[in-house]
Design brief:
The strands form two sheets. The chain has a six-stranded parallel sheet, sandwiched between helices. It has a three-stranded parallel sheet with strand order 6-7-8. It has ten helices and nine strands. The longest helix is centred in the C-terminal third of the chain and has 12 residues. The model has no long low-confidence stretch (mean pLDDT about 95). Helix 2 runs parallel beside helix 10 and helix 3 packs parallel to helix 4. Helix content is about 40%, strand content about 15%. Helix 4 links the parallel strand 3 and strand 4.
């Protein structure tokens, strides 16, 4: 079967860390994105957890060199709105047949969440090889990904959930991990203080991870 959402491979390889961002105020979106991109993290996942999330995606889509997508995408309606806002990809905590079909119909890159071998097998059977391993630490972390790698070597993951500067390099060292997702590069206190220099420094530190 043809591999679906092939552009995801390029997106996941663009940087070792994909910042998982919650935008509470629309005026924070562009300077935050600019700070992260300046630090070497161009792929930005803005979660659909706030009222201004879609507006933030639309604004960040205009930031030079930014590759913006949405996280916490649960429905086809949300996926359509993300595409209309200028998002390049969607990330979901899990996967349903309705959401998958909506992504196919919209020709929208979808990174579906998995936590078990059966879920990985189901997606591989449908032609998907790029997946979000979530919640990474709670679902078995590095030992689980190593275990999945032996029988299911074609799957490629972005572990998210409990990933931090302290353990990210261990995840990234795995052959079946292309990148990792994390929120530590854009801490809430730094955003509230509009300390974009600190965020750029955190992004640069994350971009240097191997």
């Amino acid at each position: 079967m043809t591999v679906l959402f092939q552009q995801l491979g390029d997106i996941m390889r663009a940087a070792p860390i994909i910042p998982v961002i919650t935008v509470n105020h629309i005026d924070e979106a562009v300077p935050l994105a600019e700070a992260l991109v300046a630090g070497g993290l161009p792929v930005l996942e803005i979660t659909l957890r706030t009222e201004c999330a879609l507006a933030a995606i639309a604004a960040v889509a205009e930031v030079p060199n930014a590759i913006v997508g949405a996280g916490t995408v649960l429905t086809g309606d949300q996926l359509q709105k993300v595409k209309a806002a200028g998002g390049t990809f969607c990330v979901s905590p899990g996967i349903t047949e309705k959401l998958l079909q909506a992504a196919l119909a919209a020709e929208m890159n979808l990174l579906p969440g998995v936590a078990t071998a059966s879920e990985v097998m189901n997606l591989l059977e449908k032609g998907l090889i790029y997946m979000k391993f979530f919640p990474a630490e709670a679902a078995g972390g590095i030992p689980m990904l190593k275990s999945l790698g032996a029988p299911l070597p074609q799957a490629r993951f972005c572990p998210t959930g409990g990933v931090s500067l302290k353990n990210a390099h261990k995840y990234l060292a795995l052959e079946n991990v292309l990148c990792a997702g994390g929120s530590w590069v854009c801490p809430a206190d730094a955003i509230k203080a509009k300390d974009w220099t600190r965020i750029t420094e955190l992004a640069r530190e994350a971009a240097d991870l191997k």
